[in-house]
Amino acid sequence: MEYSGEKFDVIVIGAGIMGSCSAYQIAKRGKKVLLLEQFDFLHQRGSSHGESRTIRVAYPEYYYSTMVIESARLWEEAESEIGYRVYFKTPHFIMGLPDDKKFQSVITNCQSNSIPHCILDHLQVSERFSGRFKLPENWIGMVTEIGGVIKPTKAVSMFQTLAIQKGAVLRDNMEVEEIKSCDQSGGIWVCTSNGEKFWGRKCVVTVGAWMKKFVKTVSDQELPIQPLQTTLWHWRIKDGFEKEFSVDSGFPTFSSYGEPHIYGTPSLEYPGLIKIAVDGGNPCDPDKRTWVSTLLESSVTQWIEGRFSGRIDSTQPVFTQSCMYSMTPDSDYVIDFLGGEFGKDVVIAGGFSGHGFKMGPEVGRIVADLVLNGDAMGVELRHFKLRRFEENPKGNMKE
Ligand SMILES: Cc1cc2nc3c(=O)[nH]c(=O)nc-3n(C[C@H](O)[C@H](O)[C@H](O)COP(=O)(O)OP(=O)(O)OC[C@H]3O[C@@H](n4cnc5c(N)ncnc54)[C@H](O)[C@@H]3O)c2cc1C
Questions:
Q1: What is the domain range of residue 189?
Q2: Distance from CA of residue 42 to its chain's centroid?
């Protein structure tokens, strides 16, 4: 197949969840779209691979809760279009000290915006989860019913398949090394390291942890998006308790606020194993990763031993997986026009700061609106502006 020199309405660079959802949304609107990926499709060197991602409506910021609600609808819509499931519903459970600032913000958001939730003391938590969670007496828990687990690799594959069905062209092993405005006819030239060249009326950049490097190369702008290398740990559930920690048994996704911030998902793909990991990681260059596991602190093993009433083997994880976050200083996303010589012809979506996957379908919709119409209807995008870092290097100030 030869597409070099061919013209497209939109060229999307980077085929993780954000690029795949964007290509699908653009193709769905009848536009000719090309999706380019530097590695093999569905590779494991970015951020969108693995067993599970949490979807939760419980956020400190209301603008994310509303995006999740819309995204959940779009996940289900895509599932019915493709005919298989990637999204498995289960509640979300938060635990921590009642005076934890972030925990308080989540509760306030749920209370102020009528997001169904239930606050429990340590005894009620034990009862609600039939003894599977055990909290210290001075901790509280909060359960929200809108939540679940998404299978990431399968989900990316689903959106790529749907995009192809709508007429999108997908090419992998295409590392984009340059984009430039076309003086004569307008639009953008997209050039790859293997010498291919494509023309797009518009362009979308969804290159994940490579965003800072990419934007520096193509437009000499310094974006404060820091790639972090992080490690996922899977732990063995002790004999006889395996079923209790599965999605089918109503075991929730969970997040423990405080130090360390621990999160996890129910047992899903790997029978008898449960994912429990620490939020955060170590700064890295996405092209020179060490693949070395994040240091496992004793506070994590102690947390596992205590919180699950000894039903998880906390000696050591059974296996680990490496992944990357793309952190902004305020942990808010960047979804905006690149500006400069590209004006409104190039949209970038990145800096998803370790919490973007669940939003993929909604981000795809917003990106399609921005790149095709110049505006995203019904969404407040001021939190995601690129220029916020010029006004304040720390971005959106949060309490
Ligand atoms: C361990 C871990 C746990 C997480 N847990 C959750 C969770 O529970 N819930 C949640 O919502 N989110 C979670 N996230 C975050 C979520 O996974 C990410 O926000 C999301 O996957 C980012 O997707 P992306 O498409 O921006 O990046 P990526 O998936 O990395 O995709 C970017 C793509 O661009 C390609 N690319 C880069 N440069 C070029 C180039 N020059 N030319 C062509 N292609 C290029 C890359 O190869 C890559 O495939 C987690 C992330 C990690 C690492």
A1: 7-48+153-224+329-391
A2: 15
Is 65 inside a domain boundary? no
Instruction: Please give the average per-residue pLDDT across 197-225, as a whole number.
Output: 97
Give distance in angstroms: CA of 223 to centre of ligand 1.
17
CA gap 86, 67 in Å, rounded: 19
d(CA 151, CA 30): 28
The model's confidence at residue 4, banded by pLDDT at 50, 70 and 90, is low
Q: Which amino acid is present at 263?
A: Y
Pairing, β 253-256 against β 7-13: unpaired
Write out the two tokens for 162. 């749907």
Number of domains in the chain: 2
Give residue 240's pLDDT.
97
Q: Residue 27 C-alpha to ligand 1 middle, in angstroms?
A: 21
**Residue 346, in any domain of the structure:** yes
pLDDT by residue (tens digit) across 290-331?
998 888 889 999 999 999 999 999 999 999 999 999 999 999
Kindly report the CATH number assigned to the domain that includes residue 315: 3.30.9.10
Domain boundary residue, one of 326, 355, 379: 326
The pLDDT value recorded for residue 333 is 98
pLDDT digits (tens, 9 = 90+) for 178-194: 999 998 779 999 999 99
Residue nearest to atom 31 of ligand 1 (CA): 16
CB distance 120 to 128 below 8 Å: yes
- Above 50 in pLDDT, residue 249? yes
pLDDT at 1 over 50: no
Burial of 181 from C-beta contacts in 10 A (0-12 / 13-18 / 19+)? middle
Instruction: Please answer whether residues 248 and 287 qualify as being in contact, where contact means their C-beta atoms are separated by less than 8 angstroms.
Output: no
Q: What is the DSSP letter of 249?
A: G
Q: Are residues 321 and 339 in the same domain?
A: no
Read off the tokens for 315. 């000696």
Mutational test site, ligand 1, from 43, 48, 55, max ligand atoms within 8 Å of CB: 48
Interval 215-242 mean pLDDT: 97
